[in-house]
Each structure stands twice: as C-alpha cells, then as structure tokens.
Amino acid sequence: MIFQNLDISHYIYLSTVLFSIGLFGVLFRRNAIVLLMCIELMLNAVNLLFTALSTYMGDADGQIFVFFIMVVAAAEAAVGLAILVMVYRNTRKTDVSFLDQLKG
Amino acid sequence: MFNNLPIPFLVLSFFTILSALYVVTSKNPIHSVLALILTFFSISAHYVLLNAQFLAIVNLIVYAGAIMVLFLFVLMLLNLNKDAEPIKSNLWGIAAAISAGLLLLVITAAFQKAGENVVKHPVEGIGLVKALGQTLFTRFLVPFELSGALFLAAMVGSVLLGKRDKVNKDLLA
Amino acid sequence: MSIIILLPLLGFLVSGIVGKYLPKQVVGLISTAAVVLSFAFALHMFLEKSILGEAVSQKWFTFLQVGGLQIDVAFTFDRLSGWMTLIITGIGSLIHLYSMGYMKEDEGYYKFFAYLNLFVFNMLLLVLGSNFIMLFFGWEGVGLCSYLLIGFWYKNLNYGKAARKAFVMNRIGDLGLLLGLFLIFKEFKSFDYTIVFDQIAAGNTPAHVLTAIALLLFVGAMGKSAQIPLYTWLPDAMAGPTPVSALIHAATMVTAGVYLVVRSQALYFQTALASDVIMWVGLATSLMAALIGLKQNDIKKVLAYSTVSQLGLMFVALGCGAYTAAMFHLTTHAFFKALLFLGSGSVIHGMHHEQDIRKMGGLKSKMPITYFTFLIGTLAITGFPFLSGFFSKDEILLHAFSHSPLVWGLSLISASITGFYMFRMFFVTFHGKYRNTHYPLEKVHESPITMTLPLLILAVLSVLGGLLNLPHYFGHNVAGAFSSYLAPMYKFAEHSPEVSASTEWLLLAAAVSVFIIAFVAMRMKYISKNSVPEEDDSMSGLGKVLANKFYVDEIYDAGVVAPIEIAGTVTDGLVDDIAIKGITDSIGKSPNWISSLLSRVQNGNIEYYLIYMVIAVSILLAINLF
User: Fold this and answer.
1) Is domain A8-95 classified as CATH 1.10.287.3510?
2) Residue C457 and residue B135: Cα distance in Å, rounded?
3) ipTM of the complex
C-alpha cells in the first residue's frame, strides 16, 4: 500500500459507514430503482473492505471474492431491473410499498 | 484520530461518503445514478491506493460502465426522471436512521474486534493481473465456471421477464 | 446374510410402490422371486456354515446408544435361527407361488404380495436378530402384517373386526413381552442374547426375577402363539386369504412364541415354575381347542383350532423341557399344516369361495391332486405311522410320559381328538355325496399348476419330515439327527426321557391305537352311515357348547369388554368432556389470540420486513459479540 501509516481500522470505518448509508437508503426510499442502487452501494462497501483486508494480509483470495461479488451484482442488477420493468409495465408504478401482495 | 492520516485518503473518503449520501437523499433518480457513479469512481481510487490496480479498472468497467448504464437506460425507458417518488413520513426516516445506525454500531464493533487479529503482511504485486489470474484459474476454477452458468441463467431470466406477455397483464392489477 | 433379509424388503418396496402399475404376473413373479432367492441364499448359508456348527454374526449399525444402553442392528445365523430361516423362506416361497394362482382374480393383488414380502422380512428380523430388541421389532412387524392381511378384504366389516381383534389380543401379549424385556434390561443391563444368557447360565440371578422374566416372556408367546387365554384371535384370523392362514397363522408367525422359548432355553431351564405354567397352559389349550375343533363346520376354522391345539402340544413339550421335540414338531407342523391350509384353499378356490364342509362332499373325483395331498396331510397330522407327524408327536408324548403319566394321558387324549376332527372334516369334504345346491358339481374344478405344485412339494415334505429326527429304535446311525443338530444351541443339556424299551413300545402302541380308533369311528359315521354334521340350530347339549367354542368369546365380552366400555363411557363424560376439554380448549384458544396480535406484524409490506431484518441481524451480531 502506498501510505504506511494507514491502519486497517480506517478502512473498516469507511466501509461500514458506506454500508450503513446504503442500508438507510434501502429502508428509507420507496422507489424500487433507487433501492437497487442502494443495494449496489452496500455491495461496494463490502468489496472495499475485502480489498483492504486482502492487501493488508497479502492474500489474493479477498480480491477473487470481489470478482465473484461483482458477478453476482451484475446478474442481480439485470434480473432485478427486468422484474422492475415488468412490474412497471403492469402497474405503472415503481413504488415498493404498493407491492404488498405477500400479505397473509 | 484524523491527525496523522494522509491527506489524499481523507479527501477521497470524504468525497466517497458525501456522494453516497447524495445517492440516498436525492429526490431525482437521475441524480442518484450520477452520484452513484461518482461514488464508484472514488472507490476505484481507493483501490488504487490499496495497490489493487486491476480491481480498480474492473470496478470502473463493470460498475460505472455496465451496471450504471443499465440503470440509466431503465430510468430513461420508464420515463422516471422526475421527482415522482412519494416521500415517506418523518417517522419512517427516524426508524430507518435508527436501525441503520444500530447496525453501523454493531458491525463496526464486530469488525474492530476482528481487525485486531489482522497481521500486516503486505506482498508485492498481489493486485496485478498475473497474480489474480493465477489464483482465479487454479483454486477458484470451478466457481469461475459456475459464475459463467449463473450469468447465462440471469440472461435467460431477464429476457424471459422482459418479454411482453399478455397473460401477466392482470396479474398485479 | 444381509441379502437373505433384504431381498424380501426389496420385494416389498418394489411391489408396494410400483406394483400398482405393473401387470399382475410381473408383481407376483418379483415377490416370489425375492423370497425364493432369499431361500436359496439361506440354504447356501445353511449348508456352508450351520451344518458345520458355525454361527455367522453381522452387525449393520448401532441403532441406539443412550447411556449404558447400546442397541445394535445385528443378526446371527446360527443353528436355531438358520433352521427357522429355512422354514420361513422355504414355506414362504411355496406359499408365494401358490398365491399367484389363488389371488389371481383379486384387485388388491400387488398389495397382497407387498404385505406377504413385508411379513417375510419381519419374520426374518424376528428370528435372525441377535438381541431382544431386534426380536421385538420383528415381533411387532409380523403383528402388523398379520393385521393387514387378516383384514385384507377390509370391505367386509366382520373381516376388519377380526383383524382388529387379532391386533388387540396380540397387543396384550406384547405388553407382557415388553415388560419382560424391561426386566431383562434392569437385571442384565443388556439386550444381547449372548450377554443375557451367559449371565443367566452363570446362575447369579435371583430365582424370583428369573421366574418373573420367564413368565412375562411367556405372556408374549401366549399372544403370538394363541394360547389360553389369548387364543380366540387365531380362529377369527381365518378371515384373511387362505395363503395367509397357511403362512402366518399356521407355519411361521404363530410359532414365534415357540422360537422365543427355545431361544431362551437357558432361562426356562432354570425356572421350574414357569416351565410348569407353560406345560399346563399348553395342555389346556391343546385339549380345549381340539374339543372345539370337533364341532366346527368351516373348513378353515377346523384347521385353525387344530393349529391352536398343535401349538398347545408344542408348549407341553417346552414345559417338559423337550426343546428339540418342540422344534421338531414345529417343523413338521409347518409342513403338514401349510399343506392342509393350502389344500383347503384349493377346495375353496374350486368351490368358488364356499367354506362350509356341510355343503361339500364327494370332491374326491373332481380334485384328485388336492384330495391326494390333503389325505397325506391328514394322515401326517393324525399320526399315521412313519409320516412326519407320527414321529414328532410321539417324541412329545414320550417326553410327557417321562415327566408325568397324567400329562401324557391328557396329551394323548388331545392327540386322539386330532384324529377325530381331522378325519371328520376329511370324509365330509371329500367323500360321500355332493351337497351344495347353489353350485353344481360340474363347475367344481381342480386348481391350476401354481397351486398344486406347492401342495405336492409340501406333501413330500410331510411324508419325509420325520426322517429329520428318527427315534433311537431305528439305530443310532440315522436316529436323532435333529437333536444333535440343535444340541449346541442349548446352554444346558436336555434331559433325555428315562423310560424302558418296553414302556416305549407300549406308548407307541397306544398312540397308534388311538389313531386307528379315530379313523375307524369317523369312517363308520361319515362314510358307512353317510351322515352329515347337523345344522346349527338343531344342536344340543355338549355339542352346542363346543360348536359355540365354550362361549369363550361371550365370556370375554361380558367379563372384560363390557366393564371397560362402562368405565370408558364414564370417563368420557367426566374426565374428557369437562376437565380435559375445558383446560385444553382454553390453552388452544390462547395461541389463537396471541397470533392475531402477531399477524399484524406480517402486513406483506417489504419495508417493514426489511426493518425487522436489520434489527434482528443487529441483535444477533450483538449477542455474538458480547
């Protein structure tokens, strides 16, 4: 790494803060597209922590995991958006609080 | 706490958090997308700082390039680029903030505890294509092939979902 | 050895699961092949090992381990269990073959074969298991199969009731067996045969405990082997298809009690009281069943009472300490009783499901093979010289005589009554004039080859079965083969009867003469005088009492069933309705109320769920952390 006096805990703070921001978005927003974006943000926070740990411990496995997370994120985004388009086509809405058909 | 940190890291982190906050708070989805792209860029910069050069490039290409374009495309397609979203009540905001803050506290504590065990052991050139490729195509070959299958399934799935289907019309009406 | 056990199970699974979709012939063939193959493997093993006296033990896995209790699923193929296995799979094969013809028209064909295979599997579990728990599994399993098969034609309400009766009566016996097992575990801390019997043989166990165990196990044997007072289910069990009666209720399952006692020889050898109880119960059962058999007019009921009576004789032998004689009689009885049942099945088949012997008669010419084999079976059971029953019965009588002349006398009476009812049934069925007005004689037909072939094989076995254990006057080279075969299985050597040669000949003469008396008397009555058993309502005196089976069923009804029913009604009103219902209902309603509160949480809205999830995750992590 470039800066020797950077500690791992700083990256932990940064990524948990990013993760929580994403989480707050997921909880607070109602637009399904923004929800998906917040999920991407959370995934990226995890990626960042993985990479930081990988570099600190000198183990390439962490970065390989980042690859796989990207793979899953891309697949998730594609399917999620397809579902969203279909929902919008049928209801003219992208509001998740409208989708309460799961109600028992 | 922030005293002896390198200036580039501080600036970058500040920028990252700020743009992430804008993603969440902006009322216009288009602005959110653009802010998210900025966030990804700054995360890529973090990767460079961490000597993960290859990841930095891949992150830009896959996230900022492909995925975000997809988002933008859908937004434009559905014509959602206005402040149409109904805002939730303040109560919801407080509840969401409390739960997110709770998780932040707990996770930070958990990671902090785990981080004490991390032994600093940097290895040169770990973030370069050669090192990553060797690991990916030897130890992680099977998951790699499986992720190919996953992509295929996702592709077929989204095509199927995106097809116009008369029967589904009244499903959610 | 696992193949021997698993083949019938496989047959059961195949015919039970996919049998519905297969043609009848295929299902029958698969099931029969499973048992025949199992017999072949058992025979191979028998010739390889048991003849030489080697026992094969095999442990599959540990079924249960709790504290000091370890129960293995383990099997032992020794001389005793090997012999039983041969009988079970051998007779089982013949009866499977027979059933292919007998059940041809039945719609539950695949079900029938599935049950039969399951029965064979459970029976093998019973005899091959190397601890009491395996025996218990098999014991319950055969009880279940017996229930299923008695009630096979469940659409007839009476048949269903007969099945239930058999099940409940067996359950009473099983309770005794179970208590016996508990006591064994308490005393010996193990269920394994070798451990338990070694400890018993060591002789450190208090006598009263041994007696209690012996009596409790005998209660189990009583239920399964239909002894007084738990015998009434067996005659009713004739509701099942005839091959079932032959396999389960004559040749194999009902002899499980005998097997249990022989297996526990070490136990019974040391408990004179229990042995005496066994002997007297056996004797009483034998006499009573034989007397009832005299007046039965249903061809299968006669055979059923005959089975009860013969089982009684076996228990007399066990009570006298003649374990080999009992096993010998068990074997020959399996041959000729299976033969008789299958023969009666052939008659019933030929007469289109007519079972009343008063409506038969003169079937000799129409069913020659059945007639001939039935004759051999009758002669074998009644003790015609040099047929199998002659030898096995005489051995029992000899032992009884050396035990006490009184027991011998009563057993001889019972044996002679066997002659009376068997020849009565035989003559009425096959000789004289044809008496059925509803079903013309021209339509009566001999059974197909799949049914007559087992009859012929069993007839040969019934004739030759006696060669297994010839008495000593045939010379020491050939005599007593079966005794020396079984001898190593006993912890204590058997007593040999101490009677002089002249007494022995006298006993033989007595046995032969009662056979002749029975034969002549019945021949006079039913052939020379051409009489027919009277109708039900024209009976009187002792005959009526016998025909009504000593009113035992009625006595049980009044003495046991009725009080229990009254108690049941009372507790139903008081305890059930008021106390239990009141409490349980309010307990039942409270979750309903709570859940109506909780169901508001589940409003179907993702946002709420997300918040719950986040909070829950935080709590879980926090718990993990601190």
Assistant:
1) yes
2) 74
3) 0.89
